[in-house]
Amino acid sequence: MNLESPKVTVKQTPEKVFEFLSNVKNFEKLMPENTKFEVLDSDSFLFALKGMPEIKLKKKETESPNKIVLGAAGGKIDFSLTGDISQINNEESDVKLTFNGDFNPMMAMMIKSPISNFIKTLAENIPNAI
User: Fold this and answer.
1) Do residues 124 and 8 touch, judged by C-beta distance below 8 A?
2) Contact call for residues 29 and 123 (beta carbons, < 8 A)
3) Which InterPro entries does this entry report, sorted A to Z (predicted)?
């Protein structure tokens, strides 16, 4: 299953956006309201959306200043959340989040809507959080 957020424009350089997203503590500022959030260490955090189990994400890959990949850390499901950052000009960047996971059809049907809304909210909150 591959889901993409809308592309959002941020009035920051790709380096600033990358720096912000590289600090896992900052993801708390991007989370939807009423989301449980806990930083586990410098590379991982745990969150839980309403009605869904807790999910642990860990920083898996970085390509400064254009890409950061977070992946599932443990648990029964394997997925990744990728932030792609592209420069528009000297003062603006575009950011798009992509969720990619391998789920059985029943599970995919159940989580598609909540995960789509989740990554959309994360993306929409980036311009105001930085």
Assistant:
1) yes
2) no
3) CO_DH_gsu (IPR010419), START-like_dom_sf (IPR023393)
Structural domains in the chain?
2-129 (3.30.530.20)
Q: Which residue has 């798009």 as its token pair?
A: 96
What Cα–Cα distance (Å) separates residue 48 from each residue in 13, 63, 113, 120? 30, 27, 15, 16
In sequence order, what are the residues at sequence separation of 6 or more whose Cβ sits closer than 8 angstroms to the Cβ of residue 89?
Answer: none
d(CA 43, CA 50): 24
Residue 84 has what pLDDT? 98
pLDDT reading at 74 higher than 80: no
Instruction: For residue 71, give both structure tokens.
Output: 């992946």
